[in-house]
Amino acid sequence: MSQPNLTADQILAFAVEALEDVKGDKITVLNVGNHTDMMDFMVICTGTSKRHVESLGQHVFEHLKQKGLQPLGSEGRGMSSDWVLVDLHDVVVHVMTEEARAFYDLEKLWDIKPEVL
Protein backbone atom coordinates (compact mmCIF):
# COMPACT_ATOMS: atom_id res chain seq x y z
CA MET A 1 0.00 0.00 0.00
CA SER A 2 1.37 3.39 -0.89
CA GLN A 3 1.23 6.52 1.18
CA PRO A 4 -2.16 8.25 0.93
CA ASN A 5 -2.49 11.94 0.30
CA LEU A 6 -1.65 12.93 3.85
CA THR A 7 0.72 15.80 4.46
CA ALA A 8 3.56 15.54 6.94
CA ASP A 9 1.62 17.90 9.21
CA GLN A 10 -1.43 15.61 9.12
CA ILE A 11 0.65 12.51 9.84
CA LEU A 12 2.30 14.39 12.71
CA ALA A 13 -1.07 15.41 14.15
CA PHE A 14 -2.39 11.83 13.96
CA ALA A 15 0.78 10.45 15.59
CA VAL A 16 0.61 12.94 18.47
CA GLU A 17 -3.11 12.23 18.85
CA ALA A 18 -2.36 8.51 19.13
CA LEU A 19 0.32 9.08 21.77
CA GLU A 20 -2.00 11.31 23.78
CA ASP A 21 -4.78 8.68 23.56
CA VAL A 22 -2.73 6.21 25.60
CA LYS A 23 -1.14 8.72 27.97
CA GLY A 24 2.26 9.25 26.35
CA ASP A 25 4.41 11.58 28.46
CA LYS A 26 6.73 14.44 27.46
CA ILE A 27 5.73 14.39 23.79
CA THR A 28 8.32 16.39 21.90
CA VAL A 29 8.37 17.28 18.20
CA LEU A 30 11.60 18.04 16.35
CA ASN A 31 11.32 19.66 12.92
CA VAL A 32 14.21 17.96 11.15
CA GLY A 33 13.17 18.66 7.56
CA ASN A 34 16.01 21.13 7.03
CA HIS A 35 18.56 18.62 8.36
CA THR A 36 17.66 15.42 6.50
CA ASP A 37 15.75 14.20 3.46
CA MET A 38 14.61 11.09 5.34
CA MET A 39 11.79 12.75 7.31
CA ASP A 40 10.21 16.07 8.14
CA PHE A 41 9.44 15.48 11.81
CA MET A 42 10.72 13.35 14.65
CA VAL A 43 8.43 12.72 17.59
CA ILE A 44 9.89 11.61 20.90
CA CYS A 45 7.67 10.35 23.70
CA THR A 46 8.27 8.78 27.09
CA GLY A 47 6.45 5.71 28.37
CA THR A 48 6.25 4.81 32.05
CA SER A 49 7.42 1.20 31.57
CA LYS A 50 8.54 -1.22 28.85
CA ARG A 51 4.96 -2.44 28.60
CA HIS A 52 3.69 1.14 28.21
CA VAL A 53 6.35 1.83 25.56
CA GLU A 54 5.13 -1.23 23.64
CA SER A 55 1.51 -0.13 23.98
CA LEU A 56 2.27 3.40 22.77
CA GLY A 57 4.17 2.14 19.72
CA GLN A 58 1.43 -0.35 18.85
CA HIS A 59 -1.27 2.30 19.20
CA VAL A 60 0.56 4.75 16.92
CA PHE A 61 1.03 2.00 14.32
CA GLU A 62 -2.63 0.94 14.41
CA HIS A 63 -4.03 4.50 14.63
CA LEU A 64 -2.20 5.56 11.47
CA LYS A 65 -3.30 2.41 9.64
CA GLN A 66 -6.90 3.34 10.51
CA LYS A 67 -6.28 6.76 8.98
CA GLY A 68 -5.22 5.07 5.73
CA LEU A 69 -1.45 5.27 6.13
CA GLN A 70 0.55 2.06 5.90
CA PRO A 71 3.55 2.62 8.20
CA LEU A 72 6.88 1.80 6.57
CA GLY A 73 7.92 -0.25 9.57
CA SER A 74 8.53 -0.51 13.25
CA GLU A 75 11.43 -1.65 15.41
CA GLY A 76 11.41 -2.83 19.02
CA ARG A 77 7.75 -3.83 19.21
CA GLY A 78 7.02 -7.17 20.85
CA MET A 79 10.50 -7.37 22.35
CA SER A 80 9.87 -5.90 25.83
CA SER A 81 12.07 -3.06 24.67
CA ASP A 82 12.81 0.28 26.25
CA TRP A 83 12.68 1.92 22.78
CA VAL A 84 10.14 1.49 19.98
CA LEU A 85 10.50 3.26 16.65
CA VAL A 86 7.60 3.68 14.21
CA ASP A 87 8.39 4.94 10.69
CA LEU A 88 5.44 6.87 9.26
CA HIS A 89 7.05 8.07 6.04
CA ASP A 90 7.58 11.80 6.74
CA VAL A 91 7.34 11.34 10.52
CA VAL A 92 9.39 9.00 12.70
CA VAL A 93 8.11 8.30 16.21
CA HIS A 94 10.46 7.25 19.02
CA VAL A 95 8.81 5.93 22.19
CA MET A 96 11.25 5.36 25.03
CA THR A 97 11.43 4.68 28.73
CA GLU A 98 12.65 7.60 30.81
CA GLU A 99 16.04 5.93 31.25
CA ALA A 100 16.54 5.28 27.52
CA ARG A 101 15.43 8.79 26.64
CA ALA A 102 17.91 10.32 29.08
CA PHE A 103 20.72 8.05 27.87
CA TYR A 104 20.27 8.61 24.11
CA ASP A 105 19.14 12.26 24.42
CA LEU A 106 17.94 12.54 20.81
CA GLU A 107 17.06 16.21 21.27
CA LYS A 108 20.70 17.01 21.99
CA LEU A 109 21.94 14.68 19.26
CA TRP A 110 19.92 16.59 16.65
CA ASP A 111 20.77 19.90 18.35
CA ILE A 112 17.37 21.30 17.52
CA LYS A 113 15.22 23.29 19.90
CA PRO A 114 12.31 20.94 20.71
CA GLU A 115 8.66 21.94 20.69
CA VAL A 116 7.07 20.45 23.82
CA LEU A 117 3.37 19.80 23.40
Automatic annotation (TrEMBL):
Entry keyword annotation includes Repressor: yes
Cytoplasm listed as a keyword: yes
One Pfam family per UniProt: RsfS
UniProt-annotated location(s): Cytoplasm
GO BP of this protein: cytosolic ribosome assembly; negative regulation of ribosome biogenesis; negative regulation of translation
UniProt keyword list: Cytoplasm, Repressor, Translation regulation
Task of the protein: Functions as a ribosomal silencing factor. Interacts with ribosomal protein uL14 (rplN), blocking formation of intersubunit bridge B8. Prevents association of the 30S and 50S ribosomal subunits and the formation of functional ribosomes, thus repressing translation.
Family, as annotated: Belongs to the Iojap/RsfS family.
Record protein name field: Ribosomal silencing factor RsfS
Species of origin: Marinomonas transparens
Underlying gene: rsfS
